[in-house]
Fold this protein.
Amino acid sequence: MSAASVPLPRWVTFGLMPALNLAVAFLISGLVVAFIGESPLEAVEVLLTGALGSGEGIGYTLFYATNFIFTGLAVAVAFHCGLFNIGGEGQAYLGGLGAALVALSLGEVLPWYATMPVAVLAAALFGAAWALIPAWLQASRGSHIVITTIMFNFIGAALMVYLLVNILKVPGAMAPETRTFAEGGQLPKLAFPFELFGARLGAAPFNVSFVIALLMAVLVWLLIWRTRLGYEIRATGTNPTAAIYAGIPYRRTVIVTMLISGGLAGMMALNPVMGASARLQVEFVGGAGFVGIAVALMGRSHPLGIVFAAILFGVLYQGGAELSFWIPSITRDMIVVIQGLVILFAGALENMFRPALARLFWRVPTASSVKA
């Protein structure tokens, strides 16, 4: 029996192994920082202080984490069905279009708490619609979901540029963006939790979409592990042939899963579009769709793990910005390298420690002991 196939305790799989991967990633990052002549300990202190040392820093960290929770959940739902949805960027673009149309049309006549549910539904529907064609091609024609979703990312970005330049742009304005939403089309900041502890949110655009993201995490957990559809999704992802033999409709399961995944990615747009800028702009996604892949891998496709992994990447984004400001020799490119190392060890090398941990906890026989 190989170490790779040995089941490990859940706390090892979801706790110890990610912690070891993260520790190695930061250790190597520290060596890179030391190589350029800076102190790794000072760099860590600046990074953590910038991300968690003030109310404003925490606000920015959670703002970034909100994006990654949505996209991480989107990737995780598809993972459970054996699908690799790399189309989070394009689905978020279309979700932003849906949310913006609602904010532009209802923001002047309804308060934010009445506009928000409609905007959430519109963002989810537009994101799901952008995932429909790749899902159908995968389920009906066998077209690989990775290829089709990547292609739709480019189509979505090009469509967004066209709409903002030719249709939605304010007449006479130079910037390719919509007009600023009325107050009813903006999501309010979440300042009161900080005020309870005597902190100030400052300029951080942390808003109520964070609450929506946490609610989606709970709903995804209920869906995957407490519903019949969730069982069918997991069964299809584990063994499609056995699932079909058991009577689970493959085509329907794949399409429904991708619609849910696309809807979650589309809802990511609520945070930057209605919560931060109060307008629809080019490049508002900012790579969050791809970061969601790393978040889902690090979180082991479990909603709780995804929330913690998203916060970690929020720390890296906000702390990295502070780090490059206070220590100029550590550039933004180096911050990207650190993020890449985390992704590498959390994703591509996630099983690096599994053989040793399997032998430690289960005493898996080695080749020499089997021969003896």
User: Anything to note?
Assistant: Residues 112-141 form the longest helix (30 residues).
